């Protein structure tokens, strides 16, 4: 039986890419095609695709390959440490047989150590498994919550959040509610709103936090604010679910980027954690990720482990091996690990430098606006604060393409094009 599903008409990222390709201006810049799709309209599903199916269902897919890092020439980048690890994996002439349900044996606990720290008080009571990158980890965590969370089957995510979060959790039949996070007026964190929402949620609620480099705003709580958030969560017995997709990529320092996760553990929380190695190792298409849950003791960890396997086995049996072998080789070899850390810092520093340059150039042109948010935000994305009509004008008059909400992918900025970008923004915004 074929389902009457209307085909994709055109994605928003696709529109930007097409318009960008058709533009003959040699100075054109694409800062939008790498972004997630807006959650409106990319697909149309008829109101009742099949009897008993959801009415007016709307899919909210994120385009694959979103948010990828580019080097200063605008090209994809394969880290030399990854090339070296891959060479070793190939030289070892390993077989291609299945990994176990929880993946390449050397990988999950090494990934956990990267997140929780080598001397974490949680070591020994972390149930960890390899997953199909960060998305798979979130999906697994969602399914675990659906089955085993004792309270309401609901998760609270920030406003805004990565476009895929809502879809992932809803697909696991969790209700998704949003808490206040971003303040449009200050282009910064709505800390008071966030605290109020944490306090007014029922005891034992599940809260999703971006561990660092909040996507899409680039706005993170400060360490002091994280401490306060952790204390409120303790008082309210909330269950924190951390999504860590950018460890090391945010500040250039993996330990610093893990501050929130480690602070929560120091404070005695049991947490859920999703990790992705897509950005920090540039392993996007290899789909290397990990999911972990901190348990009460070794006995509880055994039970959690067993339940994770029960969820994974019928879902995808076991994860792909190549990317995890590469990641495990890097994580478990001190020399290669040090090299990798320097390379992650190189990527983070390039992003930070482009932010600085953009701000300096805007100020240099005489702009009287406050552009401090460009440099205070971190990670791959920046909210410029440009209004939809201003974005349209920047695109039309200067061939700079990005989404209408004013969000740019900083990794699309290079030493060569930053001048043109600043000029375009300045001419439109002043
Ligand atoms: N979480 C956030 C906040 C992200 O931005 C991403 C990717 O863009 C992911 C999770 C998952 O990415 P992947 O499934 O490629 O690891």
Account of the 3D structure:
The protein has 430 residues and is α/β, with parallel strands linked by helices. It has two domains: 12-77 and 339-429, Aspartate Aminotransferase, domain 1 (Alpha-Beta Complex), CATH 3.90.1150; 98-332, Aspartate Aminotransferase, domain 2 (3-Layer(aba) Sandwich). The protein has helices spanning 12-22, 80-91, 108-116, 133-148, 163-171, 191-200, 223-235, 254-257, 259-266, 298-316, 322-332, 334-364, 372-376, 388-398, 418-429, and strands spanning 29-30, 126-132, 154-159, 175-180, 182-183, 188-189, 206-210, 239-244, 272-276, 288-294, 381-383, 400-401, 407-409. The strands form four sheets. It has a seven-stranded mixed β-sheet, with helices on both faces. It has a two-stranded parallel ribbon with strand order 1-12. The longest helix is centred in the C-terminal third of the chain and has 31 residues, at 334-364. Pyridoxal-5'-phosphate (PLP) binds at residues 66-67, 133-135, 162, 210, 215, 243, 245, 276, 278, 289.
Condensed summary:
This protein is of the alpha/beta class. The protein has helices at residues 12-22, 80-91, 108-116, 133-148, 163-171, 191-200, 223-235, 254-257, 259-266, 298-316, 322-332, 334-364, 372-376, 388-398, 418-429; strands at 29-30, 126-132, 154-159, 175-180, 182-183, 188-189, 206-210, 239-244, 272-276, 288-294, 381-383, 400-401, 407-409.
């Amino acid at each position: 039986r074929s389902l009457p599903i209307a085909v994709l008409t055109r994605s928003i990222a696709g529109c930007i890419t097409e318009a960008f390709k058709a533009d003959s201006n040699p100075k054109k810049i694409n800062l939008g095609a790498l972004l997630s799709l807006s959650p409106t309209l990319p697909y149309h599903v008829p109101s009742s695709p099949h009897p008993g199916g959801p009415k007016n269902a709307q899919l909210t897919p994120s385009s694959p390959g979103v948010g990828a890092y580019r080097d200063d020439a605008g090209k994809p980048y394969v880290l030399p440490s990854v090339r070296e690890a891959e060479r070793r994996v190939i030289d070892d002439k390993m077989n291609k047989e299945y990994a176990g349900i929880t993946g390449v044996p050397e990988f999950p606990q090494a990934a956990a150590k990267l997140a929780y720290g080598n001397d974490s008080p949680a070591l020994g009571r972390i149930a960890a498994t390899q997953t199909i990158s960060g998305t798979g980890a979130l999906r697994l965590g969602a399914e675990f919550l659906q089955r085993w969370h004792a309270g309401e089957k609901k998760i609270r995510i920030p406003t805004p959040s990565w476009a895929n979060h809502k879809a992932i959790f809803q697909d696991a039949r969790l209700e998704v509610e949003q808490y206040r996070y971003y303040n449009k007026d200050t282009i910064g964190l709505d800390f008071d709103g966030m605290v109020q929402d944490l306090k007014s949620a029922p005891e034992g609620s599940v809260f999703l936090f971006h561990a660092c480099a909040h996507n899409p705003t680039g706005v993170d709580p400060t360490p002091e604010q994280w401490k306060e958030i952790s204390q409120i969560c303790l008082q309210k017995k909330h269950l924190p679910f951390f999504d860590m997709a950018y460890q090391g990529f945010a500040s250039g320092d993996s330990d610093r980027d893990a501050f929130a996760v480690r602070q929560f553990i120091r404070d005695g929380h049991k947490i859920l954690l999703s990790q992705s190695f897509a950005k920090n190792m540039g392993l996007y298409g290899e789909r290397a990720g990990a999911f972990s849950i901190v348990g009460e003791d070794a006995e509880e960890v055994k039970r959690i482990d067993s339940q994770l396997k029960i969820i994974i086995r019928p879902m995808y049996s076991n994860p792909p091996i190549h990317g995890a072998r590469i990641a495990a080789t890097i994580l478990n070899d001190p020399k290669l690990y040090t090299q990798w850390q320097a390379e992650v810092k190189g990527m983070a520093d390039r992003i930070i430098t482009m932010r600085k340059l953009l701000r300096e150039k805007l100020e240099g042109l005489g702009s009287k606006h406050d552009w401090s948010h460009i440099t205070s935000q971190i990670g791959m994305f920046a909210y410029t604060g440009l209004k939809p009509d201003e974005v349209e004008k920047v695109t039309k008059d200067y061939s700079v393409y990005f989404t209408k909400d004013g969000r740019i992918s900083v990794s699309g900025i290079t030493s060569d094009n930053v001048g043109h970008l600043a000029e375009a923004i300045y001419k439109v915004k002043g």
